[in-house]
Write a structure and sequence with these properties.
Elements: H1 6-31, H2 47-53, E1 61-63, H3 68-74, H4 79-86, H5 120-133, E2 140-145, H6 152-163, E3 168-174, E4 177-178, E5 181-182, H7 183-186, E6 203-207, H8 211-226, E7 232-237, H9 255-262, H10 266-276, H11 282-305
Parallel strand pairs: 1-2, 2-3, 3-7, 6-7
Antiparallel strand pairs: 4-5
Bound molecules: thiamine diphosphate and magnesium ion.
Length: 322
């Protein structure tokens, strides 16, 4: 934690706490049938997107899958426009067409996720190549899962990024499941970071439930990328605490596994650490929670009352218009 100011620690704490409260509320309103589409929660693995995204600067980009809500919160997205997007409303960041899973906004560095798992891996390399060709001082950060690291796109993307020494940081959130399949059943290696050796780039493993460890590991990779030394593969180990999607009956795993991981909850751990170090007081935690919940409830009210896009808008923004 050396070198991290109190302000920085509190900013990280705020983002982590707000992320949890936003997702808990999202899960709740989704279960009530308020939100169209599908919700993929990142509860329990928030330390990865939050810790990593703190290194991005305006002009950088990130691509994302599960965990995009957390990165968007760090980048300062407005909760009203975010919830409007979840509710499929015109006032949302993608005018209601992205919904929960495809919420993005280049203004906040978020160039989006893709329906094809792993497709964002070469996409991030492409963005990084554009920065390099234009001699712009930016980096791309790419978040993906353990399952995505089995895709051909992973090999092509990392190989290309390595050969051209592109300014890109690959962050694999290994939550040990790809849909219904456990990591041990979809690959014959334990550590995905080992795959970096195939591309001649550093492979770094980190405890994905320790926000400071994530922040530090990603910080080194980001500095390397900004110095022009090329990509890094970071594997952040965590656990998917909810189903693949909300409503997933999860017949493929036991609750005992989750009980063990509950003890390593990243928000509980960071709260405890900051209370012990007297960076936070119990009163602060309560006050912040109340303040964020008020903000979230206002955002939901706004989203509920906002109009849906007009039917005539159904194809606008979908196809490239030159
Ligand atoms: C190319 C491709 N194959 C299969 C799917 C279906 N699918 C959607 S999510 C997913 C699992 C992804 O697992 P992982 O990469 O570990 O990410 P996580 O959901 O755990 O965050 C799969 C197989 C898809 N979207 N794209
Ligand atoms: Mg996974």
């Amino acid at each position: 934690m050396e070198g991290l100011t109190k302000e920085m620690l509190l900013a990280m704490y705020d983002a982590l706490l707000k992320s949890r409260l936003v997702e808990d509320k999202l899960i709740d309103v989704y279960a009530r049938g308020d939100i169209p589409g599908i919700v993929h929660s990142a509860v329990g693995q928030e330390a990865i997107p939050v810790g990593a995204t703190f290194h991005l600067r305006p002009g950088d980009v990130f691509t994302t899958v599960r965990g995009h809500i957390q990165s968007n919160i760090v980048m300062g997205m407005d909760l009203k426009k975010m919830f409007a997007e979840f509710y499929g409303k015109e006032a949302g960041y993608c005018k209601g067409k992205g919904g929960e899973i495809h919420l993005c906004s280049p203004e906040y560095c978020n160039i989006g996720g893709r329906g094809l798992i792993g497709a964002t891996i070469p996409m991030a390399a492409g963005a990084a190549m554009a920065f390099k060709m234009r001699k712009e001082p930016h980096i791309a950060m790419c978040f993906f899962g353990d399952g995505a690291s089995n895709e051909g796109n992973f090999h092509e993307g990392l190989n290309l990024a390595s050969v051209f020494r592109l300014p890109v940081v690959y962050v694999c959130a290994n939550n040990q499941y790809a849909m219904t399949t456990r990591q041990v059943d979809h690959m014959n290696i334990r550590d995905i970071a080992d795959r970096a050796a195939s591309y001649g780039i550093p492979g770094v493993m980190v405890d994905g439930n320790d926000i400071i460890a994530v922040y530090e590991a990603v910080g080194e990779a980001v500095s390397r990328a900004r110095r022009g030394e090329g990509p890094t593969l970071i594997e952040a180990k965590t656990m998917r605490m909810r189903g693949h999607y909300e409503g997933d009956p999860e017949p493929y795993r036991s609750k005992d596994e989750l009980e063990e991981w509950k003890k390593k909850d990243p928000l509980d751990r960071f709260t405890k650490k900051l209370l012990e170090d007297k960076v936070l007081t119990p009163g602060d935690v309560e006050k912040k929670s109340r303040q964020f919940m008020n903000e979230i409830n206002e955002a939901i009210q706004f989203a509920k009352e906002a109009p849906f896009p007009d039917a005539s808008e159904v194809t606008s923004g979908v196809f490239y218009q030159g």
